[in-house]
Amino acid sequence: MGGPYFAGVDVGSATAKAVLVDAAGKLCVHVVVPSGGNLTLAADKVLAAALAQADAVTGDIAALIATGYGRESVAGRTRSVTEITCHAKGAHALYPDARSVIDIGGQDSKAISLDPTGMIRKFEMNDKCAAGTGRFLEVMARTLEVPLDEVGPRALTADRPAKISSTCTVFAESEVISLLAQGETVERILAGLCLAISQRVNSLATRTGMAPRVIMTGGVAKNTGVVRAIEKAIGFPLTVPEEPQIMGALGAALLARADAAK
Amino acid sequence: MANRIGIKVQNKVKEVVFMSLLRGTLAKRKLDQKIAKLAGGKKKSNGVKRIPIKTADKMKLLMGRYYIKAKIAEKDPDQKIAWITSGGPVEILHAAGVTPIYPENHAAMIGTTRMADSLCSVAEDQGYSRDLCSYARSDFGSILSKKSPIGGSPRPDFLVCCNNICGTVTKWYQELQRIFDVPLIMIDAPYQYGDDRPEAIDYVKAQLQEMMDKVGQITGKPIQWSRFEETVYRSKEALQLWRNVQDMLAHRPAPMNSFDTFIHLAPIVTLRGTPECIEYYKTLQAEMQGRIRNGIASVEGEKYRLGWDNLAIWYKIQFLAKKFGEYKAALVVSTYAKSFCYEAPYQDEKDILRTMAANYIAGYINHGLDYRERELLEMAEKFHLDGFVMHSNRSCRAYSFGQYELARRMEEKYGLPTIMIEADQSDTRSWSDEQIGTRIDAFMESLIARKNAAAK
Predict the structure, then answer these.
(1) What's the rounded Cα separation, in Å, for the pair B279 and B265?
(2) Rounded to the nearest 10 degrees, how much is the dihedral formed by the CA atoms of A222, A228, A233, A235?
(3) Which residues from chain B sit within 8 angstroms of residue A122, using beta carbons?
(4) How far is A119 from chain B (nearest CA, A)?
């Protein structure tokens, strides 16, 4: 396969993502790998995997934009752009009628509102803790001994959510343990956790002002329990892309292409 | 004989204070070098050469001398020291020959030198809540541990608290009264929702009159009216100079930025009413005029102009200046530096006390949201702003309350984008370089994209 390709590499706290688009802006390949402890290594690994999939070499990359929490660790980047700009770009490229984006990743969550041209009007991010993020769900799933991909479906089977008063990962963990001790069902607890996350995201969403169509991106968008709870909280249906995790990398790749066109 | 001992004591104190100031400066320089080394090792400099503001050196001397004088006064039974809030009527103290000490200024120094975390912990260990203002906590921590960049503030003979800046100071000063067992003069300045009410001005005027009498009783010498008048006129002159200096930042490119004004605030807060204060701002004004004439910019190649709301983040001034500087964004005006301009609509040369009362209730944070909205909008127009940076300050509820609503109004009514930075004025434990850096990057990316789109 021939280049040139435009690459987007999104190094998050939990996973690293790479996307290659061609000169026409068409998505060619996408790869997701765990970030691990070494972000530079994760960036190299994910880009190498993407190149291998495209049967291409580094020289085929015309421009590369790095994004995400580890964006400064990506070697060979043309420049770095924040994940806010990239998620907005990726979501708007796939859904030109998108007016809002909710992104919940491994360690942060954000709400972005867009104008009709896809320009960012306003954005809000969670404060300095893992409350209500992917990491929060991971810790809770481990405490409850439920595989991560079963959290959503099982939460949806609950007749009512258990009351979880805190989204602080540390406090919620002990709350969950005490709920278990009181004989609360795992399903209700899971539903309660999804509700707690949705309430937290809703406050970010309210501050930015949500309007349809709302796109949800990031790894947590794969959790149907959280998706349904957020829809209820914000009062709009959510559109979840087929691969919600790669929206940031896709946005970065498209920005790399736009840069080159200048 | 007594006099000679007095001189000996004075010399000893001078030496001790000088040494502690020197130690503070050296520690700060070491820290600066360390930071520069760290920054240099990791990130490329943006290649912008900054031409430093020369008057800043003069301020170090001026403030150094002020603290030395205060330390000497502490040892002299004939000289009185009063601790006073930043929005307090200091002219009365200067007219009475009382040395004013500002726990808030002292706390800002503690914040800048990154001593706040350890001093706050001292206070927290004694049971003061971590939710309490970090200035109050570092003040208590400094009193308890006798530590600070100047080895602790000199002990007060009495306290003056004006609640025009927040409700916290009321309890803070009651606590100081309990600790030091000295008289406390409380000035109640009612919060103003709309235009400043005449009965509120009269109410504060009566309290100022009472304060003058009380200070006279404490010092044993009634305040001379002519001396008081002279002090107030000096204060007025200094305030006008300070306003002029800030107005000069409306010039494109701005000759200095808001981060500089935070530093140059110290004399107007502590020394207004003295001749040194006037001299200082005359020098600063002249330097700014020169910079404008010679086209010296605070941010080389200035492209974007922003306003700042709330107190400085003392330990991150360099980080923020560098971060915004990378985008050629200059912060050119702040509600914080403007808070010390005292520009009440009511001014009457014949009724000095009433004019003073009007000024002391007229501060930005003693007002409701509609007033704040008007102020921000005026700033945006006068200083040609592209947006606002709002510091949502954990320590200062009086200032931070309502910021989200103000941001919404700025955005929706006037198309001015706002970034909210969640931090604390001096407690670094509320800060995260990575998270706040990303927010600023994202804000500047969207602001630039918007401006570029509008230009097309």
Answers:
(1) 14
(2) 110
(3) 411, 417
(4) 7
Question: What is the distance between the alpha carbons of residues A86 and A77, in angstroms, rounded to a whole number?
Answer: 15
**What percent of the residues of chain A are helix, what percent strand, and what percent coil, each to the nearest 5?**
45, 20, 35
- The vertex-B153 CA angle with B240 and B124, nearest 5°, equals 110
Please give, rounded to a whole number of angstroms, the shortest distance from the CA of B409 to a CA of chain A: 12
Q: Which residues of B touch A (CB under 8 A)?
A: 404, 411, 417, 420, 422, 430, 432, 434-435, 438-439, 441-443, 445-446, 449-450, 453
Distance (Å, whole) CA B425 – CA B434: 18
Q: Is the pLDDT of residue A232 over 50?
A: yes
Prediction ipTM score: 0.83
**Nearest CB to B449; choose among A119, A125, A207:** A119
- Read off the DSSP letter of residue B46: -
Alpha helical stretches, state H, B339-419? 352-361, 369-382, 397-400, 403-414
Contact B156, B180 (CB under 8 A): yes
Q: Which residues have CB under 8 Å from A175's CB, separation 6+? A: A164, A165, A166
Please answer yes or no on whether A81 and B435 come within 8 Å at the CB atom.
Answer: no
The minimum CA-CA distance between A248 and chain B, rounded to whole Å, is 13
Helices A169-181 and A134-144, packing angle to 10 deg: 30
Q: What is the phi/psi pair of residue A86, to 5°? A: -70, -45
B429: closest chain A residue by CA: A128
Contacts of A85 in chain B (CB under 8 A): 442, 445-446, 449
Please list, in sequence order, all residues whose beta carbon lies within 8 angstroms of the beta carbon of residue A112, skipping any fewer than 6 positions away.
A84, A87, A88, A100, A101, A102, A103, A120, A122, A123, A208
pLDDT band, very low/low/confident/very high, at A1 (cuts 50, 70, 90): low
At A261, the amino acid letter reads A
- The tokens of A219 are what? 């790894």
pLDDT in tens, A160-207: 999 887 767 777 888 898 899 999 999 999 999 999 999 889 989 998
Q: What contacts B261, CB < 8 A, 6 or more positions away? A: B245, B246, B249, B334, B337
Is A10 part of the contact surface with chain B (CB cutoff 8 Å)?
no
On the CB side of B443, CA atoms within 13 Å amount to 24
Look-up: residue for tokens 């009440």? B344
Specify whether the CB–CB gap between B183 and B159 falls below 8 A: yes
Q: How far apart are CA B214 and CA B218, in angstroms?
A: 6
Integer-rounded Cα Rg, in Å, for chain B is: 22
Nearest to B435 among A81, A117, A128 (CB): A128
Q: Report the pLDDT value the prediction gives residue B38, as an integer from 0 to 100.
A: 45
Residue B435 backbone phi and psi in degrees, to 5: -65, -45
Q: List average pLDDT for each run of 10 residues in chain B, which is 456 residues long.
A: 53 57 55 48 46 92 94 94 97 97 96 95 94 96 95 96 96 97 98 92 98 97 96 96 97 96 95 96 98 96 97 96 97 95 87 96 93 96 98 94 93 94 93 91 95 89
pTM for this model (two decimals)? 0.86
**C-alpha dihedral (A206, A211, A212, A218), degrees to nearest 10:** -50
A-B Cβ pairs (cutoff 8 Å, strict): 45
Chain B residues with CB inside 8 Å of A118's CB? none
